[in-house]
Amino acid sequence: MRKKRCQSGVGGYFNMNAEILCVGTELLLGSIVNTNAAFLSRELANLGVFTYYQSVVGDNSLRLKESLALSLSRSDIVIITGGLGPTYDDLTKETAADYFGLEMRMHEESLERLEKFFAQFNREMTPNNKKQALMPEGCVVFPNNYGTAPGLAIISAKNQENQENKNKTVIMLPGPPRELEPMFEEEVRPFLLKLKSRLNNSRDNIILTSKNVNIFGMGESQVEHKLRGFMQNSQNPTVAPYAKTGEVELRVTASGRDEKECLDLINPAVEKIKAEIGEFVYGVDVKSLQNAVVLKLREKNLTLATAESCTGGLIGKRITEIPGCSSVYLGGVIAYDNNIKISRLNIKEETLEKYGAVSEQTALEMCRGAAENLKSDIGVSTTGIAGPDGGTDDKPVGLVYVGVYYKDKETGGEIHKAARLNLSRRTHKDERELIRLSASSHALYEVLRLFS
Amino acid sequence: MRKKRCQSGVGGYFNMNAEILCVGTELLLGSIVNTNAAFLSRELANLGVFTYYQSVVGDNSLRLKESLALSLSRSDIVIITGGLGPTYDDLTKETAADYFGLEMRMHEESLERLEKFFAQFNREMTPNNKKQALMPEGCVVFPNNYGTAPGLAIISAKNQENQENKNKTVIMLPGPPRELEPMFEEEVRPFLLKLKSRLNNSRDNIILTSKNVNIFGMGESQVEHKLRGFMQNSQNPTVAPYAKTGEVELRVTASGRDEKECLDLINPAVEKIKAEIGEFVYGVDVKSLQNAVVLKLREKNLTLATAESCTGGLIGKRITEIPGCSSVYLGGVIAYDNNIKISRLNIKEETLEKYGAVSEQTALEMCRGAAENLKSDIGVSTTGIAGPDGGTDDKPVGLVYVGVYYKDKETGGEIHKAARLNLSRRTHKDERELIRLSASSHALYEVLRLFS
Question: What is the pTM (predicted TM-score) of this model?
Answer without folding.
Answer: 0.84
